[in-house]
Q: What sequence folds into this?
């Protein structure tokens, strides 16, 4: 009786198929790989190699089917998506190709981990996807141009943000307060000036405030303190480089709800201007006000604030070229004497790429969307939480 020859194991078939592909025998490799996926339908490398073999034979539909098999195993597989996009492009389905190139780009590993051929294919895919997004952006802008033009600048900015998020050109930034979140407050990056009737009077004091700042700098340069000042045992994350450093320094006027008397005494007109603002008054927390001093070639990393119940006011005083500020998806340069109000619980960052210091006056104000009752509740909750945490526990847990 003739002995039955044992069926090659999977590893032997995979190795033989790899040798066949390297030798140019795509047809032989395909047959072996088809046997592998028949026995192991979740063998991802076999599906990818089967697609390569089919493509080498010019059988693009078979290559696409093999890539579908790979994506059934791993729907986020970068190589399978990149291969699909390339085939769609060759087949003339450019919009589907561009979309799939976008998916592949989003899932791509760092370029340095890719071989030269894959890097070139990925770069080509990025270019195809970028052209597609630009064309779609222009098409969408044209569809709303008349409506946006009649509605004004605010509508135009909102429309642009709406389109940019839809096209994934910018993230959908949300409020991410470190501690306190009051529900149903709007997530607005930079607020419209009309909501703050005191803003023009505040800006009108810029000259006097700047004069007091310059005197403070001349007389008390040694009093500048690091704005970031955490114990080294804390998880510092993005603050490690600036911790205990006057590269981002502060002359505090109001700190943790208390006046810094020495600095306030040297800046009476500044304090008078700050008095125009509807600042929160929460023991040990607010109000807050300071001259923020950012040294040359220094960047404040992306971060979010403590509570969405308050907003932050910037009044630029010394702003050399090369300084800018980003809140969410919008970046603006500071202009001396032009204040703005923003939501600091939306991710924001700042940078000074100049050779001079940048100084702004920073203050906090209540959100205009909080009622008096809301503000009272916020104040009581924050105060009670601090008191509870500062007191000894009432008993064993």
A:
């Amino acid at each position: 009786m003739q002995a039955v020859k044992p069926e090659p194991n999977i590893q032997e078939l995979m190795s033989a198929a790899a040798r066949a592909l390297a030798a140019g025998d795509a047809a032989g490799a395909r047959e072996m790989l088809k046997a592998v996926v028949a026995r192991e339908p979740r063998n991802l490398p076999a599906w990818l190699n089967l697609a390569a073999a089919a493509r080498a034979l010019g059988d693009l539909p078979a290559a696409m089917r093999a890539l579908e098999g790979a994506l059934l195993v791993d729907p986020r597989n970068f190589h399978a998506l990149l291969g699909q996009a390339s085939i769609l492009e060759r087949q003339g389905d450019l919009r589907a190709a561009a979309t799939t190139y976008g998916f592949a780009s989003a899932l791509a590993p760092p370029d340095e981990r890719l071989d030269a051929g894959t890097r070139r294919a990925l770069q080509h895919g990025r270019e195809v996807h970028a052209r597609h997004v630009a064309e779609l952006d222009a098409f969408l802008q044209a569809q709303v141009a008349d409506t946006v033009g009649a509605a004004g600048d605010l509508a135009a900015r909102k429309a642009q943000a709406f389109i940019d998020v839809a096209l994934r050109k910018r993230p959908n930034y949300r409020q991410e307060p470190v501690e306190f979140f009051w529900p149903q407050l709007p997530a607005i990056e930079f607020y419209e000036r009309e909501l703050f009737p005191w803003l023009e009077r505040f800006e009108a004091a810029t000259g006097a405030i700047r004069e007091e700042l310059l005197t403070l700098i001349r007389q008390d340069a040694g009093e500048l303190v690091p704005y970031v000042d955490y114990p080294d045992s804390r998880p510092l994350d993005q603050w490690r480089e600036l911790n205990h450093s006057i590269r981002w320094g502060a002359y505090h006027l109001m700190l943790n709800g208390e006046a810094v008397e020495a600095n306030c005494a040297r800046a009476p007109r500044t304090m008078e201007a700050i008095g125009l603002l509807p600042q929160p008054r929460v023991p040990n927390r607010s109000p807050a006000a300071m001259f923020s001093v950012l040294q040359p070639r220094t960047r404040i990393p992306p971060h979010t604030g403590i509570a969405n119940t308050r907003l932050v006011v910037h009044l630029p005083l010394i702003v050399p070229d090369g300084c800018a500020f980003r809140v969410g998806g919008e970046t603006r340069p500071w202009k001396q004497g032009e204040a703005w109000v923003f939501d600091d619980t939306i991710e924001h960052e700042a940078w000074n790429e100049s050779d001079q210091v940048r100084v702004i006056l920073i203050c906090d104000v209540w959100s205009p969307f909080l009622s008096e009752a809301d503000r009272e509740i916020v104040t009581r909750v924050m105060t009670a939480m601090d008191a509870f945490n500062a007191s000894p526990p009432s008993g064993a847990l």
Observations:
- DSSP finds 13 helices and eleven strands in the chain.
- The mean pLDDT is 91.
- The longest strand covers residues 310-318.
- The two ends are 79 Å apart (CA to CA).
